[in-house]
Amino acid sequence: MAIVHRASPLRIGPLTIQPVSDGAILQMPPASIFKDAASEEWQPHVPLNAHGNIELALTCLLVRVGDRRILVDTGFGPRPDRPEVGLLAQSLAEVGVSAEDVDTVVLSHPHGDHVGGTVLGAGEAATPAYPKARYWLGKADWEHGRQPGAPVVEVVQEKIAPLHAAQRLDLADGEQEIAPGVRLLPLPGHTPGHMGVAFTAGQETAVYVGDLVHHALQIDHPEWSPVFDSLPQLSRETRQALVERARREGALVLSYHLPFPGIGRITNAGWEAVAG
Ligand SMILES: [Zn+2]
């Protein structure tokens, strides 16, 4: 068995937010992330691995509040050809949670590294991997993702349509509270319906930003959109607004792809990671 990352949970009032790793993408070409930047702007600040690539973490969240168990994003799912991903079930087991315990799954957007673990099996035989859960997806991503020719049409067909067929899919249109202190937050641009999750208790706030950010340098340069943003200008504007708001409010920011556990604050000096 692969060794998975562990982190301490974050506590916000009655909410416990546990980072749970699905592994990591080991071979991300930096040009995919920094296409909007001149090389001298990013190269001095970005360590590359032996293959000249960036590594991206895959950090899902397990949120406990009362007797609720909410999973945010589902990772790649098991991939026999890629032992470095698909570790989420193991990470959940290490914190004492099984798939049956999860009552709600939030899907930030329908890309394979976030929704790969939604179902077990394939095609007609696909069944929800979290058998007691309802799943949330942004309405715009569902509608856009079913249009012929949409870049995500295959992923939606394989990983989301079976949830819809099983009547487990709920579509979010705007902000939506899904549990006390847990609110779906539209952050459009990476995909049309891309959404994060806001966690609040009293004056404390944390926000999961999904793929609004792929690298910490985008905190200093919110105008840099990676090749994966389907609506890059909207993504830039959403990122700019979120960065300013998180800085102003002193919110904790939880990211999917920044180095595990991907938690930090945004200060005038940029991204400051918080140890997990
Ligand atoms: Zn992603």
Concise structural overview:
This protein is of the alpha+beta class.
Fill in the keyword field for this structure.
276 residues; alpha+beta; binds zinc ion; Metallo-beta-lactamase, Chain A; single chain; 22% helix; seven-stranded mixed β-sheet
Question: How would you describe this protein?
Answer:
The chain is an alpha+beta fold and 276 residues long. Helix content is 22%, strand content 30%. Strand 14 (252-254) and strand 15 (263-267) form a beta hairpin. The model has no long low-confidence stretch (mean pLDDT 96). Bound molecules: zinc ion.
The CATH topology corresponds to Metallo-beta-lactamase, Chain A
Measured by DSSP, the beta-strand proportion falls in: 25-35%
Distance between the termini: 23 Å
The domain count comes to 1
Bound ions, cofactors and other small molecules, one mention each: zinc ion
- Helix/strand-derived category reads alpha+beta
* Low-pLDDT segments, ≥5 res: none
What is the arithmetic mean of pLDDT?
96
Please provide the count of β strands: 16
Rg, Cα atoms, Å: 17 Å
Portion in helices: 10-25%
Characterize the largest beta sheet: strand count, sense, and whether it forms a barrel.
7 strands, mixed
CATH superfamily assignment? Ribonuclease Z/Hydroxyacylglutathione hydrolase-like
CATH architecture: 4-Layer Sandwich
